[in-house]
Design brief:
Blueprint (H helix, E strand, L loop, with lengths): L2 H19 L4 H11 L2 H14 L4 H37 L7
Helix pairs in contact: 1-2, 1-3, 2-4, 3-4
Length: 100
């Protein structure tokens, strides 16, 4: 098992444990971990669970969706920045050798 996989598994287990401590089913924690995908996103959710202590599953899912939305917006921003950089490079250098 790679170090990244171990970190993911450890973080997932901590998230599932936090969900169970709040009185919700383990399956909810498993599904949230799957949807969030990364240890960083799961750690954000764990912090939310420990600090807010939501009383309904709907609040937990709502926070998960908010985290997923922020991640998607960040990815879109990075794609847009890369496209803009390439476009500026094209404007700066042109399409190729100019003919006289």
């Amino acid at each position: 098992m790679t170090e990244n996989r171990r970190e993911w598994t450890r973080t997932k287990d901590e998230l599932v444990s936090a969900v169970r401590q709040l009185g919700f089913p383990e399956e909810l924690g498993e599904q949230i971990a799957k949807e969030l995908g990364s240890p960083k996103a799961m750690n954000r959710m764990i912090s939310y669970l420990y600090n807010v202590k939501p009383r309904t599953a709907e609040l937990i899912v709502d926070e998960m969706l908010a985290i997923c939305s922020e991640i998607a917006a960040w990815r879109d921003k990075k794609v847009s920045e890369e496209a803009n950089a390439r476009y500026n490079e094209l404007l700066d250098r042109g399409l190729g050798a100019e003919e006289d």
